[in-house]
Amino acid sequence: MSFVELNEVRKSYGDVEVLHGLNASIEEGEFLAILGESGCGKSTLLRMIAGLEEISDGEVSIGGRVVNNLSPRERNIAMVFQSYALYPHMSVRENICFPLQLAGVSESEQKTQLMRAADMLNLGDYLNRKPRDLSGGQRQRVAMGRAIVRNPKVFLFDEPLSNLDAKLRVQMRTDIRTLQQELGTTAIYVTHDQVEAMTMADRIMLMNAGRIEQIGAPLDLYDHPGSKFVAGFVGSPPINLIEGEINSGPVSAFISDGIFVELPEGHWPVGQATLGIRPEDMSIAKSRGGGNALGTVGNIECTGDRSIIEVKLAGGRLNVSSLERWNLMFGSEIDLDIDVCKCHFFGRDGALIMSE
Amino acid sequence: MTTSGKSRLYRRADVFLHGFLIAAIFITLAPFVYIALSSFKTQISLLMGQVTFTPTLLNYDEVLFDRTSDYLRNFTNSVIVTTISTLFVVTISFFAGYSLFRMRWPSYVVNTFLIWSMAFNLIPSVTLASAWYDLARTVGISNDYLALVLAHTTLHLPIALWLLASFFREIPRELEDAAYVDGAGFITLVRRVVAPLMAPGLVATAILIYVFSWNEFPVALALTNNETGTVPVAIAKYAQEEEIKYTQMAAASVLSAIPALIALLFGQRFIVRGLTAGAVK
Predict the structure, then answer these.
(1) I want to staple A231 with a disulfide (CB 3.0 to 4.6 A). Which of A155, A225, B155, B205 is the partner?
(2) Do A155 and A187 touch, CB atoms closer than 8 A?
């Protein structure tokens, strides 16, 4: 049975509806990332699950109980905020124990829980410090500590890593995921960073303009994007999106300036379409003239483990990611092989096109 | 060469600015020093304009212990009225401010309210005094502490709201959210999170309101009698028809400044923060 359930959840401010009937179920112990651009409604949804924002319509249930009319404290959830939201006038110890005090937990039990959290998060040395005397990473860990001490049913994270520097972010990503797996607590994690979502989550819920675009395992979204939006959002370096058209003929093919991809057998809808192809799903053709795409070499970025080659086509450009090291001259002609099985085609409305 | 030219420029600016500072100190301190010195003179020595004199405590003795003097009673009245009205003002402005600045009011509501509060302070309190006197007499509380406490509360509520505004705005909303998620209700939120964070603002506001209320004269004059008169009213009474008792008046003034001075000494760091809060992030 699903643990957190969203049933036709809507949110309106006056006449303006910002969340349009969302449905989702999150399993117990699952780590779900809510991914989307800023303003897509992901934080609002999280705050509605937390009880900080009213639910205009629909139902949210946690652990089989509808929580629409319950206050945050009655929902037994814990939340980690982007700004950490530590109480500046309280020490680390007081910050972590605050929810326990409010729950009426005995002093000895408070101490036990405090020590457990401090051990898990390496906070032992800082317990008497005030938040202002801590670094960003330490503050983040205190916020985590405050969340885990009371054994909540669900962890809610609202972009908890966006105030940290890049290196620390990678470290905290692992730490949070490890902690969540150790505790086995259901987690809902809001982020606009697709790498964070891809690396941490069991499943990703990708949102766009108040709607759910797709829910699925990270690789599922990566390999089988349901729409042009999903394809474009997930993946770094991003997928190549080339405008063109699917023509009919003895064989169907996708044609654009400088690209010709023969489509597998089947009935393809004819007309304007977008080809989506990931940088690693193309390769440089060994022989000249035999590839699906013809262009000239642009900028090349070598990161050591791979090279990202920019290929300029007559009608656009492609990024090709290659594990091989190529000795290519800027401006020289280049042929690309495109694996048609790895191609995604999207219609004018951005929806996935498949052969019938 | 250029450096010495530059430093000369700075020196000239320094002299200019320090000159203003010295003038400001002189203007604010001189009357106080004059009054303090007068309180140790005899009436004759003061009226003769003697610069050197033998200090005497006679004025203080008369103000405090003379059988005809009501000063101690007036002082007690002032403590009662000022303390209660300050408590009222701080409590009401805290919760009203909480609603005004923390809840989602449309900005025109907040602005109208603040502009009205400012406009209220532009009305001379004398204008209100007679109306309040009539009102208090009708209700039957004239010459009662209650009338003056209510009047002082009304008089100082707007400025208290202004003073607290920036403190309310400084508290991040996420802290409130965090407290709710941690299991706090509204009372706990206020008691454990908002009030402690607002402490400097509340202390600064309380001290300033205390001082304002302590020194308020026209309304106190209208709403009190001999029994309930406050210190400023008492001081004014030294100016009688047939003579003005300058030196006793000075002694009474010096004594009346003591509670405010103590409060300011204790709270000065809060007050400086209170008046400049939000100015610099």
Answers:
(1) A225
(2) yes
Is B192 within 8 Å of A52 when comparing Cβ atoms? no
What global pTM score does this model have? 0.82
H or E element in which residue A213 lies:
strand A211-216
Q: What is the mean pLDDT of residues B131-144?
A: 88
Per the CB < 8 A criterion, the answer to whether B71 and B62 are in contact is: no
Spans in chain A with pLDDT lower than 70: 1, 356
- Report how far Cα A108 is from the mean position of its chain's Cα atoms: 40
Q: Looking at the structure, do residues B85 and B181 belong to the same domain, yes or no?
A: yes
Residues B112 and B9 placed together within one structural domain of the fold: no
Question: Tens digits of per-residue pLDDT, A228-269?
Answer: 999 999 998 899 999 999 987 778 889 888 888 888 888 888
CA atoms within 13 A of residue A196's CA, in its CB half-sphere: 29
CA distance A144 to B222: 60
Shared domain check, B134 and B14: no
Residues of A in contact with B183 (CB under 8 A): 72-73, 99, 102-103, 150
Mutate which of A79, A105, A146, A163 to test chain B, going by most B C-beta atoms within 10 A? A79
State the Cα–Cα distance between residues B164 and A242, nearest whole angstrom. Answer: 58
Cα dihedral angle (B39, B41, B42, B43), rounded to 10 degrees? -60
**Which residues in chain A touch residue B174, judged by CB atoms under 8 angstroms apart?**
81-83, 85
| Domain contains B159 | yes
Cα–Cα distances in angstroms (integers) from residue A205 to residues A184, A199, B68, B168, B223, in the given order: 20, 14, 84, 37, 68
The backbone region for B175, taken as left when phi is positive above 0, alpha when psi lies in -120 to 50, beta otherwise, is alpha
Q: Which amino acid would we find at residue A347?
A: G
- Within a domain: residue B161? yes
Give the residue among A309, A345, A4 at the shortest CA–CA distance from A153.
A4
Nearest CA in chain B to A86: B175
Alpha-carbon gap: B206 to the closest alpha carbon of chain A (Å): 21
CA nearest neighbour of B61 among B266, B247, B205, B276: B247
Are B258 and B130 members of one domain? yes
- The rounded distance, in Å, linking the Cα atoms of A170 and A81 is 18
Q: What backbone phi and psi angles, to 5 degrees, belong to B57? A: -100, 10
Query: Which residue segments constitute the domains of chain A, with CATH numbers given?
Result: 2-233 (3.40.50.300), 240-353 (2.40.50.140)
Per the structure, the complete domain to which residue B21 belongs is given by: 2-38
Q: Is-contact B216 B125, C-beta < 8 A?
A: yes
CB burial class (10 A; 0-12, 13-18, 19+) of residue B39?
A: buried
Q: How many pairs of residues across A and B have Cβ atoms under 8 Å apart?
A: 58
ipTM of the complex, rounded to two decimals = 0.84
Residue ranges of chain B whose CB lies within 8 Å of a chain A CB: 172, 174-175, 177-185, 188, 192-193, 196-197
Within 13 Å, how many C-alpha atoms sit on residue A98's CB side? 32
